[in-house]
Amino acid sequence: MKLEIACPKCEWKPDGGAHWVCTCGHVWNTFETTGKCPNCGKVWKDTACPTIPGGCGAWSKHINWYRNLDDTMRDEIEEILNEESTKAKLSTDKNTPNT
Fold first, then answer.
1. C-beta separation of 95 from 30 below 8 A
2. Which residues neighbour 63 within 8 Å (Cβ) at sequence distance 6 or greater?
3. Residues 13-23: what's their mean pLDDT?
4. How many whole angstroms separate alpha carbon 4 and alpha carbon 76?
5. This protein's superkingdom (predicted)?
6. Which residue in 69, 1, 70, 59 sits closest to 30, CA to CA?
7. 3-state DSSP: the chain helix, strand, coil percent, rounded to 5?
8. Which residues contact 10 (CB under 8 A, 6 or more apart)?
9. Which residues, listed in sequence order, are joined to residue 43 by a DSSP beta bridge?
10. Where residue 8 falls among pLDDT bands split at 50, 70, 90?
11. Domain that holds residue 84
12. What is the pTM of this model?
């Protein structure tokens, strides 16, 4: 099966645009980096569905946006996200869409 990315709440599919803003101010496509800001390295475990390009604005776990992952791949991605979060000593902030 082909990997797909879509909002778990409304099924909106990212269009490749830079719709997410990190707390450091960087704007990027969070799915190009699996939720990691390329500017400051912060890892976002939660991602908002951006309303400007047609999404619903709801927050979901970043991992839940990925469709057709087998259990092994899902576990590996979750482990990477957890390791990166620990390394970065994240606050409870969330990835804010660029709206």
1. yes
2. 45, 74, 77, 78, 81
3. 96
4. 17
5. Bacteria
6. 59
7. 25, 20, 55
8. 49, 55, 56, 58
9. 36
10. very high
11. 4-97
12. 0.77
